[in-house]
Design a protein that fits this description.
GPN-loop GTPase 3; seven-stranded parallel β-sheet; Rossmann fold; 269 residues; 7 strands; hydrolase; GTPase activity; GTP binding; GTP-binding; 2 domains
Length: 269
């Protein structure tokens, strides 16, 4: 039997830990069992019970306090993640060998660890070696849609993450319950972005700003449009229907439940 994993990634403050806590509560209410693993060595607090916490192995503050290493926050975080990659036996023991496990992995908010470094790709290969079917869950705070340039930049980061990890990915637009009413009306256009986003009525895309940057932005938008690479699902941890829709999408990506035996009952005619 395979095992299943959600690799939850996204910029700092996008709601990764909150999402995991809410997903575990939703699963429990649905009579399903999920587990969580914290991979953020700089995490201060999270609202879920983790079966493994990287801070038990290495903490970013301990790395920063090491005078011989002389790392700042970002360097210490990279060092801590590399240390984990070199000590995966520790995590293997924590994960155990139970079949049909469903594990949610909470990752650091420094998105460059996912989009630019090879650490998370190596980690994903490690999970696959343990028979995990992995789905990347990319979270984006809905506040980004208030500024089209920020939103467009986030699309590019999401696309780079998809290319770098080479795994099925579900994009989520989080905290939609906090959106102003006027932004909720335009939510449908944001959830399925297209090249129409790059228009002259957006200040960040006006030709008179910089013709070369305009053409570059247009080219990126056309790639997203042509290959249908992006679609966002709205989510609020307060809305059980949205949580269920998201879980169904992720389950489809990793084919959860398809290996379960079908119970056949005899029917008297």
């Amino acid at each position: 039997m395979p095992r299943y994993a959600q690799l939850v990634v996204g910029p700092a403050g996008s709601g990764k830990s909150t999402f995991i806590a809410a997903m575990m509560a939703h699963a429990e209410a649905s009579k399903r069992t999920m587990y969580a693993v914290n991979l953020d060595p700089a995490a201060e607090v999270f609202n879920y019970n983790a079966i493994a916490d990287i801070r038990q192995l290495i903490h970013v503050e301990d790395v920063m306090d090491d005078a011989d290493l002389n790392f700042g926050p970002n360097g210490a975080l990279v060092f801590a993640m590399e240390y984990l990659m070199n000590n995966l036996d520790w995590l293997t023991e924590k994960l155990g060998t139970q079949e049909d496990d469903y594990v949610l992995f909470d990752t650091p908010g420094q998105i460059e660890l996912v989009s630019h470094f090879g650490l998370m790709k190596t980690f994903a290969k490690y999970l696959e070696s343990l028979d995990f079917r992995v789905c990347v869950v990319f979270l984006l705070d809905s506040q980004f849609i208030s500024d089209m340039s920020k939103y467009f930049s986030s699309l590019i980061i999401s696309l780079i993450t998809l290319i770098n990890l080479e795994l099925p990915m579900v994009n989520l637009l989080t905290k939609i319950d906090k959106l102003p009413d006027d932004q909720k009306k335009s939510l449908e256009d944001i959830l399925e972005p297209s090249s129409d986003l790059v228009t002259n009525d957006q200040p960040c895309f006006q030709r008179n700003r910089n013709e070369r940057f305009y053409r570059l932005s247009r080219a990126f938008a056309q790639i997203i449009d042509d290959y249908s690479l992006h679609k966002f699902l709205p989510i609020s941890v307060l809305d059980e229907d949205l949580m269920n829709d998201v879980l169904l999408s992720i389950d489809n990506c990793i084919q959860w439940g398809e290996d379960n035996e079908v119970n056949v009952k005899d029917i008297d005619i």
